[in-house]
Amino acid sequence: MSLLFHFSENPTIQSFLPRLHPSHPTIAPAVWAIDEEHAPMYYLPRDCPRIAYYPREESSSEDIEGYLKQTRAKKVIAIESSWYRVLRETVLYRYTFEPGPFTCWDQGGGYYIAYSTVVPLEVQPMGDLLEKLMESDVELRITPSLTPLRDYLVSTTLHYSMIRMRNAKP
């Protein structure tokens, strides 16, 4: 396993303490990290609601064909238009972790958790987030509401991650 990452608008975190996850309250307090392949899902302001989706090995040929009719990007990430300005103004930092204390929580989404305090190897500013998304072969979609996309994706075999949806427009 290669290095893991955490993204934050706070550049001064010295160590990461296990905490409860608001979307997964049944999981013991943990430190969350993401692998490099899935890291672009976090090249956005922390509280920005987003939906990332892409084909996976188990996706149906119909869903893959439909995806490929829309884009040649590796992943699509959609955000609500009200978050565009925040995206342009946010300074984001990437924390890097050794994988040792982490175990895979969701391989399809690239999520890893550790149940003990984790000290980062380094912290680096991300720079221009739109540029980082483009460099990662991500198509960014900006839409007034994520709701239609959410409703559509749950009926497909595409992999999707719906992040911070509690902050999305109703």
**SSE order:** EEEHEHEEEEHEHE
Q: Unreliable stretches, pLDDT < 50, 5 or more residues?
A: none
- Which term fits the overall shape? globular
Q: Given the helix and strand composition, which structural class is it?
A: alpha+beta
Radius of gyration: 16 Å
Question: For the terminal residues, how far apart are their CA atoms?
Answer: 38 Å
Count the helices. How many? 4
Percent of residues in helical segments?
10-25%
Oligomer classification: single chain
How many independent structural domains?
Answer: 1
Q: For the largest beta sheet, what order do the strands appear in spatially? A: 6-7-2-1-5-8
- Main sheet, how many strands, which sense, barrel? 6 strands, antiparallel
How many beta strands in the DSSP annotation? 10
Content of β-strand = 25-35%
Overall mean confidence score, pLDDT: 95
InterPro entries: DUF6886
Detailed description of the structure:
With 170 residues, this protein is α+β, with helices and mostly antiparallel strands. It has one domain (4-167). It is built from four helices and ten strands. The strands form two sheets. It has a six-stranded antiparallel beta sheet with strand order 6-7-2-1-5-8, with no helix packed on it. It has a four-stranded mixed beta sheet with strand order 9-4-3-10, with helices on both faces. Strand 6 and strand 7 (111-114) form a beta hairpin. The chain is globular, with a radius of gyration of 16 Å. The model has no long low-confidence stretch (mean pLDDT 95).
